[in-house]
Design goal:
This protein is of the alpha/beta class and 282 residues long. The protein has nine helices and eleven strands. The structure holds 3-hydroxy-5-(hydroxymethyl)-2-methylisonicotinaldehyde. 3-hydroxy-5-(hydroxymethyl)-2-methylisonicotinaldehyde binds next to strand 1 and helix 7.
Length: 282
């Protein structure tokens, strides 16, 4: 298989083990060339634990960077987007349209969207209430979307249920996002009982599940580690379900590495389990 180059678009949170500081090492460790387009630069992430942050918006840089890439005839084999603003969504769609490569079999570069905006029933700080509808527009063009339960609920106007979920609730989310145009939906944080938590994958025909034992701890940045590993594994030729399962196991390993260290509250020690991820791809 020809080597692939991916473009990932999300923020740089300088400290806090999320977004680009996770995506770049994880996808690179998967053996996939990773180009980056930072959507903004923050001193640290905006989630629990940090009381404030600096924020430098890079929206105006994005069309300039695109123009330069076009002058160089640069194309990408896939796109993976994370934490972005509503103003950046039309620019991202333009970048995808203008720099999508086509592989030997004639397939156009995939768009993988992690609709990063919310968790635990709430939008992240800095996002307006209308943001989910903007993000839905990006998801509707995607080959793969991977929302958590909160993000899917917000985009579809459904109630947020923490757990346990009914099969009908999960099915409505999968079919709802598929119905809006997403070609494959990977829903994270699915839980039918207190014992296990996992993912549901829907390709428009069948739903497949993958579960791990629930660990009673929640860490910031696990969504980014998950999305990055899934993206890297897919680029390495794994099927969506294989990639989704490998990514879930990778995140569980990263949490296990972190759980005994109370001083490490701001993210997971994914670096220590990169060898595990690499082994799973062999
Ligand atoms: O992990 C998602 C994320 C990414 N980037 C920034 C964030 C968050 C979640 O809070 O604050 C800046």
């Amino acid at each position: 298989m020809k080597d692939k180059r991916i473009l990932t678009i999300q923020d740089i949170s300088c400290v806090g083990q999320c977004s680009l500081t996770v995506a770049l090492p994880v996808i690179s460790a998967c053996g996939v060339e990773t180009a980056i387009l930072p959507s903004s630069v923050l001193s640290n992430h905006t989630a629990k634990g940090f009381s404030a942050w600096t924020f430098c918006d890079l929206t105006l840089e994005m069309p300039k960077i695109l123009k330069r890439w076009q002058e160089e005839n640069i194309t990408f084999d896939a796109f993976y987007t994370g934490y972005v603003s509503k103003e950046q969504i039309p620019i991202i769609l333009d970048i995808v349209e203008k720099t999508a490569g086509v592989d030997e079999a004639g397939n156009k570069a995939m768009l993988i969207v992690d609709p990063v905006m919310a968790d635990n029933g709430l939008l992240y700080k800095g996002f307006d209430d209308d943001f989910p509808q903007h993000m839905l527009r990006l998801c509707s063009k995607a080959d793969v979307v991977m929302p958590n339960i909160t993000e899917a609920a917000l985009m579809l106007g459904m109630p947020y249920v923490e757990r346990q979920h009914s099969h009908e609730y999960i099915d409505d989310m999968l079919r709802g996002l598929y119905g809006k145009g997403a070609r494959n939906v990977v829903l994270t944080g699915v839980s039918f009982d207190d014992r296990e938590v996992g993912i549901a994958c829907f390709d428009g025909k069948s739903t497949e599940y993958y579960f791990n034992e629930r660990i009673d701890a929640s860490y910031h940045g696990t969504g980014d580690a998950y999305a990055s590993a899934l993206t890297g594994a897919m680029m390495r030729g794994k099927t969506l379900l294989e990639a989704a399962s490998i990514a879930a196991d990778f995140v569980v390993e990263a949490i296990r590495c972190t759980i005994d260290d109370a001083s490490h509250w701001y993210g997971v020690k994914f670096e220590q389990v990169l060898p595990y991820l690499i082994r799973r791809l062999q």
